[in-house]
Amino acid sequence: MTPDEAARLLGACSAFDNRQPSEMGKQAWAAALRDLPADDDTFEAVARYYSAPAQPGETGRRWIEPHHVRTWRTKIREERLGATIPAYEPRNPNETGSDFVLRRRAQLHAIADGRETPIPVGELTGGPHPAVARQLAAVGREIPDEDEQPYMPAGFREEIGYAATPPELRVPCPKDGCRALARQPCKTPHGRRRTEAHQARKDAAA
Ligand SMILES: [Zn+2]
């Protein structure tokens, strides 16, 4: 800020603390806050300093100093940023790392200014889908032999529509004209698959 802007800021301070304007004062403040713009946030920082609740052990009248302005201005801007991370939107697939840093910095600046609204990052809550939870419950169990039915928690079989291999399909069909291999369905004389295994095959399995 310029010395003239510092004078305006000190004018805002004197409304709270009755300090007397001085040429040295405005020069000193302009030097101390030379990197800070004399914007709404800077003036708000003065108001916040004087309106903040008294701290434990705080005695005497408050007297704002340049470092207070700096601290409160940062706080005001951080409040706008909140515990949010602005969503990263890739606008240009050819964006380099340094391009991104520049754009990201501008984005954070815009949010701190209040010119852009951050998109809160949603916290992921809740457990896995019940079907997945049941599968997870099976983790660590002994792996069944290949011929056995896989282990499935109660109800899971029905939920995923798992069709267990019927016993008769575990053996080949002995009937002439069919001779379906194990795990293959029985066939009609025309080569179509039968919904039911041949009686001979059921007998063989039994
Ligand atoms: Zn058959």
Computed over alpha carbons, the radius of gyration is 38 Å
**Bound chemical compounds:** zinc ion
Distinct helical segment count: 8
- Poorly predicted regions are none
**Tally of individual domains:** 3
Instruction: Tell me, rounded to a whole number, the average pLDDT.
Output: 82
Order of helices and strands: HHHHHHHH
What oligomeric state do the depicted chains represent? single chain
User: Which term fits the overall shape?
Assistant: rod-shaped
Largest sheet: none
How many strand elements? 0
Strand content: under 5%
Amino-to-carboxy terminus distance: 95 Å
Helix content: 40-55%
Q: Which structural class do the helices and strands define?
A: mainly alpha
Write out key terms for the chains shown:
8 helices; 3 domains; binds zinc ion; rod-shaped; 0% strand; 43% helix; 206 residues; mainly alpha
Explained architecture:
The chain contains 8 helices and no strands. It folds into 3 domains: 3-52 and 63-92 and 102-113, no CATH class; 129-163, no CATH class; 165-206, no CATH class. It is mainly α and 206 residues long. Bound molecules: zinc ion.
Short description:
The chain is 43% helix and 0% strand.
Helices and strands in order, then pairings?
Blueprint: H1 3-17, H2 23-32, H3 40-51, H4 66-81, H5 97-113, H6 130-137, H7 156-159, H8 199-205
Bound molecules: zinc ion (ZN).
The site of zinc ion (ZN) has 8 residues, from loops.
